[in-house]
Design goal:
Blueprint lengths: L1 E2 L7 E2 L18 H14 L9 E6 L3 E7 L5 E8 L13 H9 L10 H8 L3 E6 L4 E8 L3 H13 L5 H20 L1 H13 L13 H6 L2 H11 L5 E7 L3 H11 L27 E5 L4 E9 L7 H12 L5 H9 L5 E7 L5 E9 L4 H17 L4 H18 L3 H15 L4 H11 L2 H12 L5 E7 L11
Parallel strand pairs: 1-6, 2-11, 4-8, 9-13
Antiparallel strand pairs: 3-4, 5-7, 5-8, 6-7, 10-12, 10-13, 11-12
Helix pairs in contact: 1-13, 2-8, 4-9, 10-13, 10-15, 10-16, 11-12, 12-16
């Protein structure tokens, strides 16, 4: 359990992303292996994405349910997506969405304490949950033979949490420790500061986990009120993928969500959210005891459904994803200016960010920034080649194909795009748009979003007296 998303494709929508991206976690590969990989991706990218039928239904209480059956797999992923993330919070209770996520599996009238986790484990299942800016998600993976019991346990926990006072105090301490650890974790600290600088006066600028003072002051009454407001059938989506009986699943859902005849609910709405503030200040510089320096910069971009996102994705992939990408090839491999460098798009329900981040040691910050700007500007002076365009598109498509290899990956993909865009066919149209991106599109989005925009910048600088040994895990 925790903040952010532990799995994504190229498009990212939360702050918990820094452990796996290109240039910071991938192994170095030589040119020959790059060519082989690209050829393999070319073949994989033509695998049909929709190999199983998807059945989307609205049940009692306007609850949205997605069934995708995969007979013969022997396993089922069940996920409950609640369309509430930290962006809906009053600043006085920042972190309450994440706090509730910690408490949902801590007991109901039928399930005391940690009985839920123990019982899921006993039937061979796995359980987890996460909170992002836009959603909260609870999910289990169970063998086919245990589906009915596992699904009942999940629905019971999400629908009927008791929020025991003693468990609330235990989890409060857990979260406070997580906040402290986040301050000590270099990359988490870097991106916390970047989002704060990028989203001034905007809910995305607050950490999903909240702050020490808000978590300490949160009451059980706050928890109960927030849960009642947001955990409603019409604000949820249940996604089931794998080897299960649809009628058994529907019966369980209707038992826990029977509907409320004659009840008309107001739509759940967050506060009015302004676009990210444009940065007109210098870099945010933070000195810490580190073995190397860290740099992150961000440019405001539109939300996930905007027509420019596919071109921005291709641009980002060409610049900083894979050893042959421009930033990695020049700054890391040829010049040795950085130890790692990568790009990614944060594309949520609201306005997002185009992010570049790097680590380096013994190099001048201004030199690194100058070379980053030069390589980004080079998109206009040295247009992408046909090979670069093809490689970037195939890498992007491969991310989404690979994500569907497991039932949990496919369920995550369905829930993510459906709750963020409202369009069950969004991924298909998105990938078609990726294929249609041209060199002119790349130049256009560069000019529109990067060329004339002052990015928000965070520079985490190693103290001169710091030991050369690592001071973090």
């Amino acid at each position: 359990m925790g903040t952010g998303n532990k799995y994504r494709g190229r498009v990212r929508r939360d702050e918990d992303f820094v452990k796996k991206r290109a240039g910071s976690g991938k192994k170095d590969v030589n040119a020959a292996s790059i060519v082989i990989s690209v050829c393999f991706i070319l073949a994989v990218s033509f695998i049909p994405l929709r190999v199983c039928s998807m059945d989307i239904q609205r049940l009692e209480g306007d609850l949205q349910v997605v069934f995708e059956q995969r007979p013969g797999t022997g396993v089922v992923a069940a996920q409950v997506w609640v369309k509430v993330g930290s962006k809906y919070e009053d600043p006085k209770v920042a972190g309450i969405t994440h706090f509730i996520e910690h408490l949902i599996f801590k007991g109901t009238e039928k399930l005391r304490g940690n009985a839920f986790a123990s019982r899921v484990e006993a039937i061979g299942g796995v359980v987890n949950a996460f909170t992002s800016y836009d959603n909260t998600v609870y999910h289990i993976i169970v063998p086919k033979a245990s589906f009915q019991e596992g699904f009942d346990l999940l629905l019971e926990s999400v629908k009927n949490p008791a929020f025991p006072a003693e468990e609330m105090e235990k989890e409060r301490q857990v979260i406070l420790e997580e906040i402290k650890m986040g301050e000590d974790d270099t990359q988490r600290k870097l991106f916390k500061e970047l989002f704060s600088a990028s989203y001034q006066g905007h809910p995305y600028g607050r950490p999903v986990i909240g702050f020490t003072e808000t978590v300490k002051s949160m009451t059980r009454g706050d928890i109960l009120g927030y849960y009642k407001e947001h955990y409603r059938p019409d604000n949820m989506t249940i996604v089931l993928t794998g080897d299960f009986d649809k009628e058994t699943a529907k019966e369980a859902i209707q038992r826990y969500f029977p509907g409320e005849a004659g009840v008309v609910r107001k739509p759940v709405e967050g506060a009015a959210i302004p676009p990210p503030a444009k940065s007109d200040r210098g870099p945010r510089i933070i000195e810490k005891e580190l073995r190397e320096d860290y740099l992150a910069l961000s440019y405001p971009i539109p939300r996930i459904t905007d027509r420019d996102i596919p071109a921005l994705e291709v641009l980002g992939t060409m610049l900083g994803d894979g050893e042959s990408s421009r930033l990695i090839d020049v700054l890391k491999r040829r010049k040795g200016l950085v130890n790692s460098i990568a790009t990614y798009l944060f594309s949520p329900r609201e306005e997002g960010l185009f992010v570049i981040y790097a680590s380096f040691r013994g190099k001048d910050y201004e030199d690194v920034m100058t070379d980053i700007r030069t390589q980004v500007a080079g998109i206009e002076t040295v247009p992408p080649s046909e090979w670069e365009m093809g490689k970037a598109k195939n890498m992007l498509k491969a991310f989404y194909v690979y994500a569907q290899e497991t039932v949990q990956g496919k369920a995550r993909q369905i829930g993510d795009f459906l709750t963020l865009t409202g369009n069950p066919g969004f991924l298909d149209s998105f990938l078609e748009a990726i294929d249609g991106v041209t060199v002119s599109d790349i130049k256009r989005v560069y000019e529109k979003y990067l060329a004339h925009t002052q990015p928000a910048v965070v520079y985490m600088k190693a103290k001169k007296s710091a030991s050369r040994q690592s001071v973090y895990p």
